[in-house]
Design a protein that fits this description.
Length: 105
């Protein structure tokens, strides 16, 4: 599901090395570079889990909301109760998956 940590590390190294596009910033081997790499590692996981939480909202709820005058689209799924329940639960799941990925790298 996520990106391989070696590939992300190589990508960040190439971007932040002295000859790279962001080499002038001097961020290589700094905590900021680690944060950038961990963010790149976590982004696909968090995106996929958010997408699944939004997609798993019951279509009947969307239809009921439309009949009551609300324009519900998948990106607005958080605005109704079922979507709000899945987001906090998903936060814990996302945090756990990201920490597992960070531990592996």
């Amino acid at each position: 599901m996520g990106l391989p940590p070696v590939v992300v590390g190589l990508f960040v190294y190439l971007i932040l090395s002295r000859k790279g596009p962001l080499g002038f910033m001097g961020l290589l081997y700094s905590p900021t570079a680690m944060i950038i790499a961990q963010t790149i590692l976590a982004l696909p996981i968090v995106t996929a889990l958010c997408h699944s939480a939004i997609r798993n909202v019951d279509p009947i709820i969307r239809q009921a909301a439309r009949t009551l005058g609300r324009n519900i689209r998948p990106r607005n799924a958080r605005s109704h109760p079922r979507g709000q329940i899945r987001y906090p639960l998903g936060d814990h799941r996302r945090f756990g998956r990201v920490m597992a990925e960070v531990g592996r790298s």
